[in-house]
# Entry
Amino acid sequence: MEGVRDQIRRLVARQQAGHRLPSIMITGETGTGKGLVAHLLHRSSSRAGGPFVPINCAAIPDTLLEAELFGYERGAFTDARQPKAGLFQTAHHGTIFLDEVGLLPEGLQAKLLKALEERAVRRLGGTRSEPFDAWVLSATNADLSVALRERRFREDLYHRLAVLTLTLPPIRERGEDIVQIAEHYLARACVDYGLPSKTLSPAARAELTAYPWPGNVRQLANVMERVALLDDAREVTPGMLNLPPMVPISAAAVPADERATKSFDATAMRGRVLETLEQHGWNISHTARALRITRNTLRAWIEKYGLSEGTRRARRPVASRHPDAQATTVARAIVVPPPHQLPTPSGPSEPRPILTAAFVAEPASIKIRWERRQLILLRLVLSGAAGLDSLHDTSPMLEALIDKVRSFGGRIEELSPTSIGAVFGMESMEEASRRAAHAAMAMQRLLERGRHGEGAGIPARVGIHAAVLMVGQAGDVQHIDAVARRAAPPATHGVARSTRSRPV
# Structure
């Protein structure tokens, strides 16, 4: 981290007003602070007085991303009633930050390269190019060297974006820094919510240092906020941390050689991710929930480790991949003739096929068990958002809000570009109402402060409602009775109309 700081200091010191700034690519795992560094670079640069325009390239559908970046003219497509400037033009005399640039679709990469080379963009449906003057920062949590070898990312675009590269290390490689970061966020949470200060016990410090932290700083901050709100003890113990089970990454468990250690860590993490994916039938949402990470993080890991649904299929018998299937299987014999002795239409004179037996695993029948359970339903609506026109603004904030919900034990049930619906108590969790209320408070703080502490002040409203609903258990997946949920009071579906709702 000292090396990263030194690079930033030297870059800022050499800037001159009016001169072009080199494109910078920020690399690192999810949650290491790439967006924070991008904000820092902008605020420290000669363009600090201009706009800072972030866009998450993975959060916007491919069909809309080109229009968001380059803009469009009236009539360029259905519903294009008025012309709109793209984000490159919006960032004129400022900075544009392309987050998750490694996930850009291939067709758009060529258009982005041309725009960067010519310093001009042409809107969808337009006939002329319009110049822009923006400092281009980009970030990725994927290993672009693999994408370059596999021709999934253009090499010429990479060199255009990565004139300079800043690499942020994961916090599991930062030793005692983990404890200092944890103490910082714990103290801030206590101040934010007016709570007595708390300290970390020696055992909790050891637990924090040993944990691999797949979500990095973002996950650590959420854990500290949850501990501050849900536990009254003045000293934090390992039990209060309630860290989700993961493959431990510890130097004591692997060879001393650094290269061997990193190889072991990557192999262990890859195996854990693949195993969880297979347990949930490659359902991204269910797997991310089991690993306590966001779906974007999971997609990045899948790409990083080169995983696919066929990764282990060749080494296993044919079987159903339904996530609710029970482990018990039934062998069924199938007669399979060798290909060179298949019957032909010429009649019985042909040699009779030699019969062989293949065994195919079949899932046991799924049993569904229903029970009545009191659940806490939470719904948050971003009041100032404007539907699809604000996708590049709302998606990063929604991801951070979802992290808050999950850190307090909630489950996302509904999601739109401007709202979140969550449920607490699905896992027979104690204090579901308290956790829902604290999650709402944490979401309020996040909206007030902004993702990177810039004081965004995004307006929103939240509704919390308790309801007794039927919950069905099908295998290892739980489902809320859809009919009963639709009939629930308006607090879960129409925040503005509910007397139980209050502005945040």
Notes: The mean pLDDT is 78.
